[in-house]
Design brief:
The complex is a heterodimer.
Chain A (H helix, E strand, L loop, with lengths): L3 E6 H13 L2 E9 L3 E12 L2 E4 L5 E26 L3 E4 L5 E4 L3 E12 L4 E16 L10 H7 L3 E14 L8 H14 L8 H10 L2 H9 L5 H12 L2 H16 L3 E5 L1 E4 L8 E3 L1 E8 L3 E8 L1
Chain B lengths: L11 H4 E2 L1 E2 L7 E5 L5 E9 L2 E10 L7 E5 H8 L16 E3 L2 E6 L4 E5 L8 E6 L9 E2 L8 E5 L4 E7 L4 E7 L15 E6 L2 E3 L4 E3 L4 E6 L5 E8 L17 E2 L1
Parallel strand pairs in B: 1-20, 5-8, 6-9, 14-17, 15-18
Antiparallel strand pairs in B: 2-19, 3-9, 3-12, 4-5, 4-10, 7-8, 10-11, 12-18, 13-14, 13-19, 15-16
Classes of the chains: A alpha+beta, B mainly beta.
Chain lengths: 301, 250
């Protein structure tokens, strides 16, 4: 039988988890050349809400945690073909070719479409985990330093209890269909600002040559289906943000931030009246859950 | 965040309204056949100034059917900015030597004069090196029988088309572009023969933006295309402009 048994009610455990969840932040940016176009993104997110449940099979299950995308900026750049004039034959070859042709001139160029989708919310659909105690040796602790000196220096070793995910499932972000209008407006605005101080005949010629802007963009980027679904696929699968965020969440819970930690040796009495503090060493720490509480057991020695 | 379409588009493409075969600009070309083998010396003129010289070898053994001469490049190569010159001289190699660029073409092939960039306004004088002193050579200000002048018009509106040498006249209308269900592609060029009777074309010439006009000279010609009445398209509330740049008429 263990020398020490500590329990935290499920309510207390939820409070501990909420604090842990609220401290999670993630940010990343990346760019890639994807053949006919290039794309880049910059994201920053935090977690909020959700339900946590303690199970009798020694697992913790977290559902429907919001992923709040504080920053979600995507930029897609491609070459707008525009209006091409010339290129036709002046004097045909009697054998079906062309002897003399007019040089071709195209009015177009590279264009970048920046999309700011910050504020969208997606979800950690399901996270199931065990509790995992890990002994932490403070790397700042000097060799030969006593436990007392380490405490005074703020380098005490610790027993840490982590939520160790068995699996993490997050839902892909649901980019609204209105992003298509946003893209259309940005491209049109870019073309209109190309000739800021001239009459609009060139702009209108260019818009006419492009035709329906969304059809053009979808054709250039090779999009089959809706542009919002394509954008979701670009972020979640091509850039693998889905996997990256799942890994970041799993890593955060499993090894970066414990849900609770105990100092070792554990302080029993503070220093007082010229006496040094009283501390007891802890070994064999174990942590479990059932549907009612979290139970931590340990031995002294 | 405002996105701008970056482009290296030469503004002369849309600021120069109107064309003149005797003063080549970016939207016009002249096609000429040398006919006889030999060495030809060319001089690039801008008004009274000679901006550059070049040599064309009409070689009966040459497989080259088209030598493309970018007149802007010829001027640049002479003004010491050869690094800026473009290497688009198809078929004729346009190699540079003392005395200017050198091109080679079959005498039954064609020389295409065009202006790839800049304001242009050039004409060319070609003369066989060993020609008789009485032979004044060829001057692009007067298109010969067999020469072709091509023009493309971007500015919508009504244009007068005049052969300055025969006084033949025609009217061309470039329709304002409309955004449709399909992307607009300029239609095939309209071909017009310039003969002693005038322009061999029935009625008003109807064109789309950027559509080509091909004038085939059968008599000495100089084609001048001038904007008579611009078409600025339908009025739009979001397009009130008070700071329009004055357009340069050629």
């Amino acid at each position: 039988m263990s020398h020490i048994t500590i329990a935290a009610s499920s309510n207390a455990f939820v409070q501990l988890f909420n604090k842990l969840r609220d401290n999670f932040t993630f940010s990343k940016s990346d760019a890639a050349n994807l053949g006919p176009f290039s794309a880049s993104y910059s994201v920053a997110l935090h977690l909020g809400g959700g339900n946590i449940q303690l199970n009798d099979d020694d697992t913790v299950e977290v559902k429907h945690v919001n992923i709040v995308w504080d920053t979600l900026k995507v930029q897609v750049c491609f070459n707008l073909p525009g209006l091409c004039i010339g290129g036709w034959c002046i004097i045909p070859d009697p054998w079906n070719g062309c002897l003399v042709g007019v040089p071709k001139v195209c009015i177009g160029g590279p264009i970048c479409v920046p999309l700011d989708l910050s504020g969208l919310v997606s979800e950690v659909n399901d996270l199931k985990a065990n509790l995992k105690p890990v002994y932490f040796v403070d790397p700042a602790r000097l060799p030969g330093e006593s436990d007392l000196d380490a405490e005074f220096a703020g380098h005490s070793n610790k027993w840490r209890i982590f939520i160790d995910p068995i699996f993490v499932h997050i839902d892909p972000i649901n980019i609204p269909a209105t992003v298509a209008n946003l893209i259309e407006n940005i491209v049109r605005d870019a073309i209109e600002s190309m000739f800021p101080i001239l009459p609009h005949f060139i702009v209108d010629a260019l818009l006419a040559a492009i035709g329906p802007i969304l059809d053009l963009v979808k054709g250039l980027l090779g999009i089959v289906g809706d542009i919002n679904n394509w954008l979701t696929d670009l972020l979640m699968n091509t850039f693998d943000l889905l996997g990256i965020i799942e890994t970041a969440i799993a890593d955060y819970f499993a090894s970066q931030t414990p849900i609770y930690e105990f100092e070792d040796p554990y302080p029993v009495l503070d220093a007082a009246s010229g006496l040094i503090p009283v501390k007891i060493p802890i070994r064999n720490l174990a942590s479990h859950v059932n549907s009612k509480e979290m139970i931590v057991t340990a031995d002294v020695g | 965040m405002r996105t701008r379409l970056k482009t290296t588009l030469d503004p002369n493409l849309y600021t120069q309204i109107g064309l003149d075969s005797g003063s080549l600009t970016m939207l016009g070309t002249i096609v000429h056949q040398l006919g006889e083998p030999g060495e030809y010396r060319g001089a690039l003129h801008y008004g009274p100034d000679v901006k550059g010289v070049f040599t064309i070898t009409a070689d009966s053994n040459s497989p080259v059917a088209q030598a493309t001469l970018d007149l802007a490049s010829v001027e640049k190569s002479q003004s010491g900015t050869a690094a800026e010159t473009e290497k688009d001289d198809c078929c004729g190699d346009g190699s540079k030597e003392s005395g200017g660029k050198r091109y080679t073409v079959n005498p039954r092939g064609y020389i295409l004069f065009h202006v790839a960039s800049g304001a242009g306004g050039y004409y060319v004088h070609l003369r066989k090196i060993d020609a008789d002193v009485k032979d004044k050579g060829y001057d692009t200000r007067t298109l010969n029988n067999g020469d072709v002048f091509t023009a493309m018009i971007l500015r919508p509106g009504t244009y007068s088309v005049v052969n300055a040498l025969t006084k033949a006249r025609a009217e061309a209308v470039v329709h304002y572009p409309r955004v449709g269900e399909k992307p607009y592609v300029p239609p095939a060029p309209v071909r017009i023969e310039c003969n002693a009777k005038g322009f061999e074309y029935q009625g008003r010439i109807e064109l789309g933006v950027g559509q080509g006009l091909v004038f085939q000279a059968r008599v000495p010609s100089r084609i001048e295309i001038r904007l008579e009445k611009p078409d600025d398209g339908p009025p739009r509330e979001d397009r009130g402009r008070t700071d329009l740049r004055k357009l340069k008429l050629v």
